[in-house]
Amino acid sequence: MQKTEAIVLNKIKYSDSSFIVNLISEDLGRFAAMVRISKSSKSNIKQASFFPLNIIETEINLKNNREVQTLTYCNNVENLQNILLDINKLTIAQFIAEIILKTIKEKETNSKTYNYIKNFTLELNSNSSETNNIHLLFLKDFAALSGFEMYNNYCKETPFFNIKEGLFSPVFTSSTESLDLHESQILFNLLSAKNTNELIKLNSNNKRLLIEKILLFYEHHIPNFGKTKSLKILQEVFND
After folding, report:
1. Exposure pattern of 192-201 as b/e (b: 16+ CB <10 Å)?
2. What angle do the packed helices 87-103 and 231-238 form, to 10 degrees?
3. Among residues 71, 94, 174, 86, which one has the least CA distance to residue 126?
4. What digits encode the pLDDT tens for the residues 6-64?
5. 156: pLDDT strictly greater than 80
6. Is residue 133 within 8 Å of residue 202, measured between CB atoms?
7. Chain-wide mean pLDDT for the chain?
8. pTM for this structure?
9. What does the alpha-carbon distance between residue 21 and residue 73 come to, in Å, rounded to a whole number?
10. Cβ–Cβ under 8 Å, residues 18 and 36
11. What's the CA gap between 44 and 114, in Å, rounded?
12. What pLDDT is stored for residue 14 in this prediction?
């Protein structure tokens, strides 16, 4: 039995009384665990704990020869009610959790990545203003943590961002490989921003465009990344 703090990424129904939850932890990396739900009020596991990006303390019946482990206990580490009760924050949490799932496919541990995700979650929960743009900063920073940084070498001589190379280039090659002048300028503004206040003037159309282009960048650099299902919900909630 191993105790570990973990962050919830998603849950998938397995039966009427059980589901599989994907988690990421500092000790174990990304892993899947079977959760069995008891109707008893004395149960060590509460189904309500398994919402996207919730931080939980767990006990795992760990067996290295299993693809799916067994979770025997969990408890909330932080009070993340602001995320759970705010549709904007919960939608962002769902979107970010899907990005993490699509990007991190190995079981290798990475303390820096785990702590970044945890700190982002705490900031999302406590942030009372400009929540709308916090996921844009995540996409920028998480790409760099995952080994495919978007380099900010934008200047008059290199005004076109190249998705394949991950940096700004002197020439526009094609719509599938390069961002045009307007798109590149918006991306430059994001890459230069240190907090959400610096993105406050980003309108809905530009935000939608920026997210779609950054996801193209992720798709190019992460094998089998595929389309992001929660993007449509994010756009509907924020009218992006």
Report:
1. ebeebeebee
2. 160
3. 86
4. 999 999 988 888 899 999 999 999 999 999 887 766 677 888 899 999 999 999 988 88
5. yes
6. yes
7. 91
8. 0.93
9. 13
10. yes
11. 25
12. 87
For the chain, what percent of residues have pLDDT higher than 70?
96
CA atoms lying within 13 Å on the CB side of residue 98: 17
Please write the tens of the pLDDT for every residue from 198-219.
776 788 889 999 999 999 999 9
Backbone angles phi, psi at 4, to 5 degrees: -155, 145
Reported for 137-141, long-range contacts at CB under 8 A and 24+ positions apart, including other chains, are 137/190, 137/193, 137/195, 137/196, 137/199, 138/96, 138/99, 139/99, 139/211, 139/214, 139/215, 139/218, 140/190, 140/191, 140/214, 141/116
Q: Which of 132-136, 198-202, 233-237 has the lowest mean pLDDT?
A: 198-202
The pairing of beta strand 55-61 with beta strand 29-36: unpaired
Tokens in use for 201? 């003037």
Where on the phi/psi map is residue 157: left (φ > 0), alpha (ψ -120 to 50), or beta? alpha
Q: What is the dihedral of CA 165, 166, 170, 173, to 10 degrees?
A: 60
Residue 162: how many other CB atoms lie within 10 Å: 20
Considering the chain, what percentage of its residues have pLDDT values greater than 90? 73
The secondary structure of residue 197, as a DSSP letter, is: G
Q: CB neighbours (10 Å) of residue 93?
A: 25
- Structure-token match 């039995």, residue found: 1
Size of the chain in residues: 240
